[in-house]
Amino acid sequence: MTQQATRRIRIGIDTGGTFTDVVAFDEDAGTLTTTKTPSTPSNPADGFINGVQKVLDLLGATGDDITAVSHGTTVATNQLLEGKVETLGFITTAGYEFVLEIARQAVPDGYGNSYFWVKPDRIVPADLVKTVEGRMDFEGNEVRPFDEEGARSTARWFRDKGINTLGVNLLHAYANPSHELRMREILREEHPDAVVSLSSEVLREYREYERSMTTLVDAAVKPKVSRYVTNIHERLDRFTGANDAGRERIPFYIMKSNGGVLSASEVVNQPITTVLSGPAAGALGAGLIARRAGFDKVLTCDGGGTSTDVTVVIDGEPALTTEGSVGAFPSKIPMIDVVTVGAGGGSIAWTTPEGQLKVGPQSAGADPGPLCYAKGGTEPTITDAHVFLGRIPPHLLGGEIPLDEDAAAAGIAELAGRLGLTPEKAATGILEISAWNQANALRQISVKRGLDVRDFMLATFGGSGSLLACSLVDILDLAGVVVPLNPGNVSAFGLLTVDVKNDYVQTQVAKDRNLDLAAIARTLDELHHRAADALAHEGFAADEHIFARSVDLRYFGQAFEVRVPAPAGEITREWADQVTDAFHDAHRALYNYDFRGDESQQVEWVNLRVSGIGPIKRPEVITVASNEGAADVESRARKSTRDVVFDADEGRIATGVYWRPDLLAGDRISGPAIIEEFGSTIPVHPGFHVRVDEHANLIITKEAAR
Question: What is the pTM of this model?
Fold first, then answer.
């Protein structure tokens, strides 16, 4: 394990499009230290190391004191969202070369959209798909032998074409991977430069299209993620002196989409698991904070410089899905159910040829950034609108980054001239469009899934996540808003709350009344051993291992499954009945009906799953002193007054500005108000009220709801 350090400091780093967020957890003192530093898009490793150095300087510590680093990255996500997929080759079973073209009959947003929807380009063009003879059946029995000579010819063809990234999906390899494993051996012999992903290692489930796409997405991001992780790891090693004699490499973990972390050395072998790395950490961190504040039903809103990510968290657990996608690419891996919308602080406001105002999804990012950054930006952004309206101060990070108010005002005025509006109308219009974009994303993960948003609090975090909180309450009629302390660093905080986690799945379709319980026990035992081996490789002792079972079930004839947890213990008929009862309950909760007790409608088991979990020590959510006996909040925390526009028709109104670190538990503030801290700003609109709870959270509600 790691060398004994003078202090034990674990660091979480979330690299966003504009800022790199850092949280350090001193395991001995139990304290958290947060900071931010500008991201460096040209070489993200620079911003990463700058963040590590900055937080260590704040602690008076050195690289020798670091015991582990957990990292959330958007490298894979951005590559897929931007469609920057390198040339891929695809190897599949003879007769199935058009599986990508056939895809699924489903049309996004329903059949009513079929007149307008254009099928996206395939991830691999037809001329780069090659087939190999050989066939397994769905039980893993060999129907036709693997054609080794044909496989060698295929490998040489890709080598001669210079196609170095390949996905391999042979029919029913989830049941028996031997043909795929032999294909990889041949590729190593004939095309040693090839980067290869096998479907039996990426996704051991049936459904050929989804398995093909998931495998190809894994292959597509593998080269870039590998280069990025290797670069970061090498820089971290140099920084901590791991290259010196006697100094071991510190554990370096990457956040996975499923809500766990994995060592960097393993992530390069399964990079698809990182496609929602950053948003997953934020959802986990916000869920933990909100639950400890007493809120069990929460919608999260993570606002960054480029986009806003939203998800549902119930009882502290974010919703999971295996039906997700990133950009145009479906990925059937377990991931936190996140919806992303291009509405971040850097989203650009623009006009159509017809004179309509639009906001995003194009973003100014960190470089050149908004006009007010004075780094060469040429178009107004959401941040410029906030600056012009006075809702954020003329600086960021407590004064470290000054903002050019005149540049923001000039850009807004030019846009307003094109629209025939006053600058105030144009700026509030930008923010209103942005709020509706975020509200639509929140509806997508709540109302469209049968949830009543009026029962939910909104947890806002990220640098820009809280700027439109009051507008979202008005649009969606939410119960209120909870804003954690240091909201700009919640994703980095979430990285310190995450266990090591590996998921293993095996398709084993069978009707409930005909279950082969011995076969299920063998499969779960195999998955259990694979999970245990992975945890041992990650350095966890056997007595630390935690395992969680789950099963995907459906009613016979349905196209999609519902996942339910399965209890530990011996696999008996009573055990199976507990699983099917849980399925009936979950189906009713999702669709408002079930067929419990209906002998004519059978339950079908589809996938068996085991997750291996290696627990870590979590930081505690802080508490703050009570305001009893302290000076009143106006004299203690109000630092200035600023003219702010909340409604363009009412113009600028004098608004109190409060410094959040000076707020105490029990403090109450009525809007209009501006609450500022190092990494973010919270505008409180007229008609809203703020209460500070014992954990320093801001609880914002409408006056009528108090």
Answer: 0.81
